[in-house]
Amino acid sequence: MFSLKRQGDFRLQLTRTLKTPGRHQLDLYLFTPHESTLSPRTLAEEQFFFSALSHRFGLLGLPAQDRASKLDTSYSLLSPHYEIMHGAWFYQYLASLDRLRQQLQGKALAEPLARALRLSQNFAQRLRKAEPKQSKQLRYFRQLDVYFSWLAEQFLLECMTLEGFAELDEELRQSVEDFLAQERRYRRERDYLGDFQGTPTRVWNRMSLYQRLLEYPVVLRQKITELGAGTRKLVKAASTVLIMSLFTYFLFNVRDASQQLSLALLLGIALIYAVRDLLRDDLIDAVTRWLRKGKPRWRIRQQMPFTQRLLAQQLVWLDYRRLPELDVTVREHAGKWATNEERQIICYRSRLHLDKATLTQDEIQERLTLDCEPLCAMIQASHQQLFEWKEGDGVQVHAIEKQHDYNLLLVHREPGQAAGVAQRWTLRLGAGGIVYCESKTVNWPEPPPRWRPWRRA
User: Fold this and answer.
1) DSSP reduced 3-state for 75
2) Whole-number pLDDT of residue 166
């Protein structure tokens, strides 16, 4: 199952861990509201794929081998083995915090909080047990140490603000406060306070930069190849042959009818060229899209950091569809949404093939990030006001903020599963970002039972 996490005002991140080799399928449907002006003209499909959607994979390592390799110092002798190993440890810690945040669901619970505290203490002890000597590794160690201290503090402080934290066991609350005080003393001793100074926005941006630097050794490199370029060239050549053949036939017939070059003939030739230039690009796009309907648009090669070794191959589809064009199962079990058949629905499909050799040394974390800023930019500012009368206060004026409701449906299937698993969320977007995101239950159909031959006892 995917776990959802908000990142700032505009971004949503969906994460899960891949442990099984084979073909992993993922379908994402974003149902737009009636008020949305989304179309291929306002936001092209390629622009949405490269700017608003990010589908990345990272190395998590293997927990069993990870515990055995803690005492192995050979990794610290050479780079990038040190960065990859510690980056995988950090990725595991991030994935654990995301799962625990999903369990909390806005309420302070003793078991997830105690586990988060225990994970933070163990990670701090493992990380700070042996400090490297090389300058490159020392710089990576410092960035990881600073970001971990900040991240652990942010998670625990967030838990302290949740409902029900004051009713938890006093010993647990005291352990959380002791850990936070210990981290503040550690920063002072290590001279880390400079990284935590500044405005909240400056500190947030600095830590976001540290996170990108820390993830660099363990995030798989993507080599994107656009499919259909050869088909477009063939369509372009065929359209040129067709148009020029008709134009040549027209000239020969005109020459046979009249040997004189008149002004009307010149205007006719110019008009034909104008019509050709006007319709040629649209004709090529329409024919290419028709020929490649249902076929993938991009092929992505997932490669190992630094060594560029191929780990997985991915095929990606992305197009805008209308409600009648969707699968019957999606229409019937995606929840009662709008009935307007003219609105655009963003359909993203991914087929990832993981070899067995890929998962012998690492588990893979899959991260799907949706940037809603282009969708929020389509929301027009509202100047409408609501007037309300209250006794004693008179007339009160309330400004109305225009908001759009979206429906996000995610269907994924792992190798060996007979049917997919569906998850659904409702999103409310405003001009300033995501207003709220709420998980919904999906009455997705169960897979049909497998037929088993009758055997005599």
Assistant:
1) helix
2) 85
How far is C-alpha 91 from the geometric centre of its chain's CA atoms? 17
- Per-residue pLDDT tens for 173-215? 899 999 999 999 999 999 998 889 888 889 989 998 998 888 8
The span from the CA of 178 to the CA of 170, in Å, is: 12
**Percentage of the chain lying above the pLDDT 90 cut:** 23
270 token code pair = 């110019």
Q: In whole angstroms, what separates CA 171 from the centre of its chain? A: 39
Tokens of 412: 């994924």
Scan for tokens 């509202």, then name that residue. Answer: 382
Cβ-based neighbour number of residue 236 at 10 Å: 16
pTM (whole model) above 0.70: yes
Q: Distance between CA atoms of 122 and 142, rounded to whole angstroms? A: 18
CA–CA separation, 250 and 271 (whole Å): 13
| β-strand partners of 451 | none
Q: Cα 25 vs. chain centroid, distance in angstroms?
A: 15
Confidence grade of residue 457 (pLDDT, cut at 50, 70, 90): very low
Which residue did the predictor score with more confidence, 211 or 289? 211
Any idea which residue has 């974003």 for tokens? 30
Judge whether residue 77 has pLDDT over 70.
no
d(CA 301, CA 297): 14
- Decide if 312 contacts 354 (C-beta within 8 A): yes
How does strand 363-371 pair with strand 53-61? antiparallel
